[in-house]
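Re: your question about SnoaL-like domain-containing protein

S., sorry for the slow reply, the queue was backed up all week. Below is exactly what I fed in.
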Amino acid sequence: MPSSDPHHSSPTPRTVSGRLLERISAGRWDDLAELYAPDVEVEFPFAPVPPHRLHGREALRERFAALRHPDAPRLRAENVRIRDTDDPELVVAEFDYEVHLPATGRTFRTANVQVLRVRDGLIVESRDYHDHLAFATAAGRAADLLAALDG
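Result:
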């Protein structure tokens, strides 16, 4: 929660982005939602099937809770590059996920980009560009994904 003390500065967008990736990599799903504003907008432009957008911290909390399941993918962010922009609220994070799928024992890597808008130390907007086909293929669900796209 941002401080109301005028002498206390909020974490920078770069710092918040780094914290997000660190917590994901550590599997700290219960700690992620607090990095987001209550009315956050998260968009998944490359998601082949809905949801393409989530609204609000509570919707994210539900999504993160599903990742606590023993068969949920284990994600580790590597090769992280966080880039500042000319907009002081906006950062772009480029990174690779090393993904381990406990259900199949498979491990793979995939490139990702997140564009985060951070205000008063909280993420207020996020555009997450992930390779959903790579995740579906590695999990043995590519046929299900294609069927969903066709239907």
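Strands lie at 36-43, 53-55, 74-84, 90-101, 106-119, 122-129. The chain has one domain: 13-150.

Happy to talk it through on Thursday.
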